[in-house]
Every structure is written in C-alpha cells, then in structure tokens.
Amino acid sequence: MANLDFYFSPGACSLATHIALEETGAAFNPKPTYTRKGQTRTPEYLALNPKGKVPVLVIDGKVLTENTAILTWLNRTYPNAKLLPAGDALKEAEALAFVAWCASGVHPVLGRFFGPQNFTDLPDSADNVKTLATKANAANFAIIEKALSGGKDWLFGDWSVADGYIFVFFNWATKLGLDVSAYPNYAKHFERMQKRAAVQRATAREAEALAAMDKAA
Ligand SMILES: N[C@@H](CCC(=O)N[C@@H](CS)C(=O)NCC(=O)O)C(=O)O
C-alpha cells in the first residue's frame, strides 16, 4: 500500500481528485492547503509544486501534480474502483479525453471568473472578462449537457472520474450565480453525484477543512 499525502483546497479543482481518492477506498493523509490564503505560494509549498497549485498527490515521497495525471495513476493503481471504463482501450481513451478537456478547456474558462484581474489590466474591464467567460462557459456547459442526454446517469456508462470532474464545475457555476437553467441533464447529474457516498465523504472533509481554516483566520 502506497503512503499518500493529498494536498487540496476546499472547493477547488482538487475536489475531482478528492472524490476519486474516496472512490478507491485507499487510505490517505489529507493536507488542506487554502489557495485564497496564499498557502500554495509559500516557499515550502513551491518546493513541493513549483506551479503553486493544488491538487498534489505525494506517493511514497514522489510528487505527482495535475488532476489528469493523478486520476490516471489512481485508475491504474486501484483497478477495482473502475475509475475509467475498463476492458475497452478506446472507451478508456474517450473518457480520458473528456478529463483532459475538463483540465484544459472547462477549468481555464471558469478560472477567469475567480481572477479577472489576471486577464486584463485595463481599468474597469473585469466585467468584460466575465461577460466573455460567461459566453465561453455556456458553450462548454452545452457540450456537457449534450454528453449527458438520452437518459444517461453517467458520462461513459458506469460512473467514472469524468463525472467527478464535471461535478466541480457545476458546483462553481452555482456558487458564482451563473444561469444554469439551460442544463437540466447536468443539474440532475449534480444531484445524483451528491448522493454518492464518496462524494459525500469528500465534500464533508472539504467543508470541515474550510470551517477550520476560517476559524483560524
Ligand atoms: N491543470 C491543473 C490546474 C490546477 C489549478 O489551477 N489549481 C488551482 C485551484 S482550482 C490552484 O491551485 N490555484 C492556486 C493558485 O493559482 O495560486 C490541474 O488540473 O491539476
């Protein structure tokens, strides 16, 4: 059994990995690291991950970053958890393509809402960044909505880490107050996800970590 240290920030994209870890049933050491408190930018953290980001999974002392890579490692290491479609290389690759798009396509667009100042330094232009991000996000959410059409419970037949990843984005969209009324399949998927035991364990741990950090502030 590998020793696993898991660095996450409550509510951040690391929740996709957090859910997957819970789905494996593997024991791990949670290391809450709050991005908004600059805890991913300390010299100690940057020594661990020079990108200054969560998630990080330290596996027997070896550092692995990036949701896509960590999810792939978890799938290989805990095959019984069936984190990606098994027994069909193409189906597995399709699910991985979806995961890669979550990281490279969906996440960066939503990231513009959290830090519009990183995308423009023109005066009074933050709202323009958000307006453009709203449009780009709607196009991404429409793709997810279509992928969930036809009465599907999950994106790729059985539950996969792609489902865990899109859960993070719907959560962000509702917290940001974005209009999600055009995505009924996605909304139902979000409700379905909330009923999964692994999701409940991960979100409860993140809520506890957030409360502890707020208390310490
Ligand atoms: N491509 C990375 C993105 C990681 C990322 O952007 N994480 C954000 C949280 S959602 C972060 O740690 N931000 C802290 C910062 O930039 O200071 C992945 O998928 O793991």
UniProtKB/TrEMBL annotation:
Residues 1-82 form the GST N-terminal domain. Keywords: Transferase. InterPro entries: Glutathione-S-Trfase_C-like, Glutathione-S-Trfase_C_sf, Glutathione_S-Trfase, Glutathione_S-Trfase_N, GST_C, Thioredoxin-like_sf. Residues 88-217 form the GST C-terminal domain. The lineage of its organism: Bacteria, Pseudomonadati, Pseudomonadota, Alphaproteobacteria, Rhodospirillales. It comes from the Bacteria. It holds the Pfam family GST_C. PROSITE patterns: GST_CTER, GST_NTER. It comes from Ferrovibrio terrae. This is Glutathione S-transferase. One of its GO terms (molecular function) is transferase activity.
